[in-house]
């Protein structure tokens, strides 16, 4: 299959390497113009970890070249780049293509679907709750791929396409995908924004000072209690929309095979097994700059529409805005385009369904 990866950061390069290792013809495009080292002149992409090797991938010069001839498009940029990528690729999409948003935050899949509808095209949009891999760039043309997730939640627009979407993703990526009824379900299944809020807030000075610390080790009993309380808000919000999603307790048991206990206890068990997973050593971390405006803030807005109070999520947005001297609500460039603040609950459900 001809696959284009839209994004040349760690996750984008990891997808390019992993998909190449599975025999797909891969093109990669850097929306930001990020230099790709020897890749740009016909060199190879070097990968270590779960897909060790050197892989030949094509580098596209622009959005038009990136989409030309592609069967599948994988958006692999942080959420603060989704709107820009969607705007760039929409004019070049063609019937027969499929778009994957990896990973969706702030209903960016809906924004993509609206752009497709405006052009009168039949192009399915697939939304994942998280990424298939975790990775870290080791150079302009190299990447270390540390984890391949075995199962992911998947939804689609139109919603009736979800079975085909799950089958396509499983065939292409070689892992299991659990069907969800709508992108609302995948949005509310994403544990990362509230979890990262608790970790970053309780370890803020460690990040600010650039200290070397364990990400899971930083989830002390107190940080774990905050994570549990945030999770109660998320679960209540999901229930208000008639959705049942996995709890943070279930996540630890399911993902890491640990004995059920408090989040703090389970996190320390994971930390002992994975001491190499480090917490952010800078304030310029997606735990905050991506997950606050595009993860926490949308949940606050959903709570407003559903009549569900989200005091801890809302406090997180305000606290991090104060700590950074930024307005993280204003940094979300997706919700204003969707006009979520003007919607009723019924209009929102119609939009995401």
UniProtKB/TrEMBL annotation:
InterPro entries assigned: 6-PGluconate_DH-like_C_sf, 6PGD_dom2, KPR_N, NAD(P)-bd_dom_sf, Opine/Lysopine_DH, Opine_DH
Record's keyword terms, sorted: Oxidoreductase, Pantothenate biosynthesis
Designated name of the protein: 2-dehydropantoate 2-reductase
KW Oxidoreductase (keyword) present: yes
GO BP terms, alphabetized: pantothenate biosynthetic process
Keyword Coiled coil recorded: no
MF (Gene Ontology): 2-dehydropantoate 2-reductase activity
Family from the record: Belongs to the lysopine/nopaline/octopine/opine/vitopine dehydrogenases family.
The reaction(s) this protein catalyses: (R)-pantoate + NADP(+) = 2-dehydropantoate + NADPH + H(+)
Residue ranges annotated for the Opine dehydrogenase domain, each copy included: 181-323
Pathway(s) annotated for this protein in UniProt: Cofactor biosynthesis; (R)-pantothenate biosynthesis; (R)-pantoate from 3-methyl-2-oxobutanoate: step 2/2
Limits of the Ketopantoate reductase N-terminal domain: 3-101
